[in-house]
Structure prediction request, 99 residues.
Amino acid sequence: MILKALDSMGSMHGYGIARRIEQISEDVLKLNEGTVYASLLRLGQKTWISWEWGVSENNRKAKFYSITKAGRKQLARETEDWERISGVVTRMLRFARPQ
Prediction:
């Protein structure tokens, strides 16, 4: 979800990423910053995102994260996997039980 948010929205700081995911999920997902920042650290270690210092809309120093070329490739792989798996789950849920 973080990779997708960065891919579609461009460079964002961690708090903005969390709020955007919540907004897109219509508040079904509630993310705390600790979870988001731990994920950002792991994504950075895998070189799927990069970051640079900037100034937030509140005029505070913040890290702004961006998806990398490797991150876009990973997002494509994960999207393909998700579509395949969710298709299987959908078919199984529609499968009629024998009478």
